[in-house]
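Go through this fold for my students:
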Amino acid sequence: MKEISCFKVFLKYSSLNVLGMLGLSFYILADTFFVSRALGADGLTSLNLAIPVYSFINGSGLMLGIGGGTKYSILRSQKNKVKANQVFTNAVVLTGIIAGIFFLLGIFCSGPMVSMLGANESVFKMTKTYLQVILLFAPIFMTNNLLLCFIRNDGNPQLSMTAMICGSLSNVILDYIFIFPLGMGLFGAAFATGLAPVISILILSPYLINKRNQFHLKKCRLSANLLLDIFSSGLPSLITEVSSGIVIIVFNVILLHIAGNIGVAAYGVIANLSLVVMAVYTGIAQGIQPVLSSNYGAGNHKNVTAILRYAVTAVIVISACVYLCMFFGAEPITGIFNSNHNKTLQDIAAAGLKIYFTASVFAGFNIVAAVYFTSTEYSRPAHMISILRGFVIIIPMAFILSALGGITGVWAAFPMTELLVSLIGMILLFRFITKTQKQSSRGD
């Protein structure tokens, strides 16, 4: 594959996946907009308290989809169809087990979970409603993520994009219908979100029913080694999603202490806009994953490096555009979600946007770097990047900076963390690329 055609493949896979991920991010953003209109600050607070659980569910699905898809793509490029099908089968079984746990939590433990998330009496009922519905739809969310990843790695990114966008558009339409004409409140928002992956799966179904896919369920034993490979390759995706949920919980606790429910509602605006921006970077990273894995499996290391270069360039350009929009448009953007024209919420959120999104370029680089490492079967640096940005640095940083600078310190914790991790990521990336180039030269 020449570099020019390599660029075309990068453009095809990444652009289609970015569009799909943007559509997918509207799951929560549409909820935020309609809930803010119908239920005000309390509705926004309830939604933001429940979002971390959605991140856990989505992250688990991505872990199995990205992890299984990566291994499947490498084996497929090496013409090992038997083991490739074993990977898919093992991923499906593991999806069923984890999704079943979430489902049972939704039936029996939603109340205690809401209390653990910090909901007070005024928002407890609404938060419980949203959380329970999301947990009960966990098997659908996770199955959808698994199929989207495998179909993308099967050489059909167009179908994955179409399914993601159609599911998300249906969520927006159903959100409006359930919340306003039908007056179903936060239950309607959650139900619309849960139905979106159902529609996505229906769009994917003909591809599977007509047997156009090259991955199939095969009768085989569960393999500890395969499960470990899937888990290891997909772990950074899980950590990224789960850590975003944990960070939201930590920020919520700090903001409740500093500014009460209004502070949490303001963060709800910022966090949900962040989900959209991070979806773009995740779209680039997930888009290049099949290309990286297949080229790596075939030994085309020059193409692997070229794809990485294109991805990092795209992150830099997009980040500049994002920050300009956030800096100059903070007031009107916040106003969209501030239906009650609450001045305190407006001031907190607008100021927060300008600080929080200085992290964009660093976060984008970290997401791409983590997927690059897992796609080339070098998972340890990916785990390090994900754990550092997800837990080890961000949590103490939030407490330290909030103690020093109050609510401004809370907003600064995210960019400071992403900056530090990106510096570490650059060192790891430089070492790995240098090592790979030397190995490739010896092979030549």
User: Anything to note?
Assistant: The two ends are 17 Å apart (CA to CA). The CA atoms of residues 188 and 313 lie 40 Å apart.
